[in-house]
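QA checklist item 7 of 12: single-chain prediction sanity check.
[x] sequence parsed
[x] length recorded as 314
[x] structure emitted
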Amino acid sequence: MSLDFGTGKYERLLAACRGLDAVRTAVVHPCEEVALAGALEARDYGLIDPILVGPAAKVREIAVRHHLELEHIPIVDVPHSHAAAAAAVALVREGRAEILMKGSLHTDELLAAVVAKETGLRTGRRISHVFIMDVPTYHKVLIVTDAAINIAPTLDDKADICRNAIDLARTLGLARPKVAILAAVETVTAKMPATIDAAALCKMAERGQITGAVVDGPLAFDNAISASAAAIKGIRSDVAGDPDILVVPDLEAGNILAKQLTFLAHADCAGLVLGARVPIILTSRADTVRARIASCAVAVRITHARHAALQPVT
């Protein structure tokens, strides 16, 4: 089963959310037009029920200036972005919100509150970022990870990066997603540590340490994406030519790949942070409306899947 998303398929993702209740979402420091409008757009689609966390006077001033309607939307008044991050995380810990949505503060500032040892939202997993990308020249969605958080991930970090992405793909309807572990070459060599990590991740999947997916690597990008390129090099792989998830060797490679796909291949993308107690929506000023709404839709799907998993079996 392939994941439906993007041009011609994007509406199916929203349709899958139409029967779901809006999820209470803490919007952190929405102190510029795009950040505030993005939350209101998601509300208008029936995806989220926002709580705005930031300097109330500034939020209202932005709403008036840009003709945005805030009636009936609660605002938690805090003096600055640092306090907004802490207050939003506290809303989740208190059970008053189930999703975090980044506003106009820096990502590091928000994540510092999320990973705080005593007051944050840590789990046993390493947190990681995913781009859920609709690339017009590819036959299905690509999940690219990690392109925003883990700068130089260790093998253990990469294992959690894989697990987070696999869980997401399964939540979105893929029974057994295909994971390509990327490197510059498809052969294992000590000269390129990323190839050794890739081989180790495949062995971990073989031994049941990473479950729920077909994992292969190292694969160079061409071999991962193109079955014919893999065949020319004699690579036999159930993943080559058909991956759902691309796991990059480090943040720089992932960030460059995602931005190339966005700006050269005109891909739409949704962005989320996984591995915390709740999904965290990361959007940027450069995102399209489609990307912002898609990010919220995926977070809502994750939240409702967790609700279903907690229901007692009858």
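[x] summary fact logged: Residues 123-275 form a domain with the Isopropylmalate Dehydrogenase fold (CATH 3.40.718.10).
[ ] second reviewer sign-off
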